[in-house]
Hints:
Chain A is of the alpha/beta class.
Amino acid sequence: MANSAAIRVRDITKVYARRGQPDVRALDGLSFDVERGTIFGLLGPNGAGKTTLLRILSTLARPTSGAASVLDQDVVTSPLEVRRRISVVIQETAVELFLSVRDNLGTFARFHGVSVGDIRARIDRVLEDFGLAADASRKVIDLSGGFKRRVQVAKVFMVDTPVVFLDEFTTGMDPILKRSVMDKLRGEASRGRTIVLTTQILSEVEELCDDILILNHGRQAARGDLHTLKLLSQGVYDVTVTFDELPPAIEQELAALDPIRVSVTHNTVEVTVKEDHGGILPVVAALAARGRVLRLEVGGASLEDIFVELTKGARS
Amino acid sequence: MSALSAVMYREGKIRATNALFIFWDVVYPLGYLLVFGVGMNEAIGFARLQTSYHAFFLAGVLGMAGFGIASNTAWSFFMDRDNGIFFEMLTYPISRAEYLLGKVLFNVAIGVVQAFVTVVLARVVLGVAIRPEGFPLLVAAVVIGTAGWFFFYAIFALAIRRNDAFNTVTSIFYFVFLFASSMFYPLEPLPAVFRGIALANPVTWHVDVMRYATIGLGHPQTIALEAAGFVVFTVVSFVVALSVLRREG
């Protein structure tokens, strides 16, 4: 019987052997499922194993051990069947530079078996959706980097593959298009497509993903929806204080709080701290007493705070 | 549309963006034959062949043209890498074998057109006596020859990854394979060592088959052996190229 998971990963390990250097364990016994019709976010610092995982799921790499399947098709034993069910936006810009925007979309659709009669209508729709209609006949080599990325992402909207992989898909996109693409992705997911994305922009994950996996050193650091992950950071607060004049030696005082994250910009101090036994208020009071406060804000932890906290070891 | 025809369609689309490139591919063997072949024929003459040099050299330019198309097609892997499309294509619903075959099939078609134009004009302009009964063998030799050399070059294009290093390799191959073969001259008068190297060279096998197909030069048994040798070379090159491509993803 077919399982309900769109993607199933079991105890996947990927080791890269390097001549004369120690092996790199990019994935280390990772297991998880992705339900059909969800938007699944993969988060992690550089080198956490996100792209390696996407390469395995899109049949570009083989796991060293373990198993993975996409819609019940094993990525190692049935790679072609997997590829019939996926479309992929890889991390690097991937376009046919010498073809027009229209031909880029059409060629991609032909590879995915869209009928010739259907292709023209789809191209017109996607050109409109992505603001590319005016450039339809231009060769992609003549477009800016952002437009090339736009063409690349537009391609996956030409086809109906049930699973879509997006590796850092918003790179180079302006905020308006980004929002529009995110809306489209939500629409695709509501129609039953499963979207798996990686990104470094955590606000995108907060806004878009139903399910989030944080990877660190090739292992699962945390997993769940946004609310579940936020529970992991109970007792972690973001404190923002704007002074009329930055108090002297404030940096040392902030360092003494052992913050998860700290930034000082002009007269504003932003610090993420874990409350101690006395709670957060004494910390806020101590900070506020250091000068004349123009603005004070205290909030619960963001996904970024959780991310930083969970992956601290990898970044230090 | 089948996966194979989708790859061919893509190759055709890309090649069609440069009509001059296609035109050059089609006419350059003829130009080579007219300039080099006629020049050699007039300057030196090849009485021992019992035929004109341009008749002898016709198969040589066809072999050279197939060799050139194959190396250009293999070079396009670097263009695909530069465009970033190489890895994206490996996620398309096509097998690795279809990717390799589709990439060369469009260019094989160009090779057949090129051979047709060259043979017809060699007959009309230079008066080379072409054997019509050899045409099916000639078409087979052009198709398998171009594909075989493409698979051979693809091994290096996929394994080397560096455009400049690949260019060095192709320069070496052009020098070694083309000159140590029966492409430009008959092998009989050559020193034994040179002749031995040339006889072991797949370019010699390929050109000899086309020479037999066009002007009937050669012994049928030897030609059959050389044809079989070239088919084996093609199959082995395909298998190795496929395995190198599979290592990529």
